[in-house]
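re the bet — no i am not wrong, look at it urself. input seq straight from the record:
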Amino acid sequence: MLLVVDIGNTNVVFGVYDGAVLKAHWRLATDAKTTADEYGILFTNLLASMGILPAQTTGAIISSVVPTLTGTFEALIEQYFGQRPLLVTSESDTGLAIRYPNPKEIGSDRLVNAAAAFHKYRRDLIIVDFGTATTFCAVTKEAEYLGGVIAPGLGISAEALFARAAKLSKVELTRPKTVIGTDTGTSIQSGLLFGYAGLVDTLVRRIEQELGRTAYVIATGGLSSVIAKESSSIQAIEPLLTLEGLALLYHRATGGSSALSWV
């Protein structure tokens, strides 16, 4: 079994692949103060709840955008799973030609998503990841990673609004019945939900203008299903894209034939 771990600024998402099948996956809060032992206990207990033992793992791979936690997870995987994990970097074999002048600036999660999306669809793509930041990645049908856009995420934008405006209280991120809010809560919901859908559609249109052609637009990340319903440009939702990409990159790095059916 393959252990795949994505360390993001807000959440740590990890799962276990048995061949082509993602047997289970979980989402934990990212906390730089949590030790390798604490995360290790969480990992092993969650796996045990699905009848999976650490000794059953035969490999591991990590994508991390939180440098202070990278070593923590490398240590816990070595200690609790007996595996030396692969770490995704700008030098990893993604199957894409990176057109960034300095590829080291690209977050590993963006590379993983781009690799997974291209190998799955093999066409001009725009990948929108709704995480702590909302990121857009442009990939061509010629397997070129061109770059993209980074915007503040929906969650941190909402938190900033509530923190800086004394009279505004937190609201649930659900769809209001109308764009024109009839109270403070629905007005905030409208601004967040429809506003971010508009941000996505505008940026997708501008990226396509620069590409000179239309692209297939994929959404991923924790809030992808919420925004995708209001966006006119998102064509597919791939909630497990990062985990799929990690499995793909592991098989590319180890020279094995990928068991993932879409590769």
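see?? The radius of gyration is 19 Å. told u. also The chain has two domains: 2-87, 97-239. so pay up
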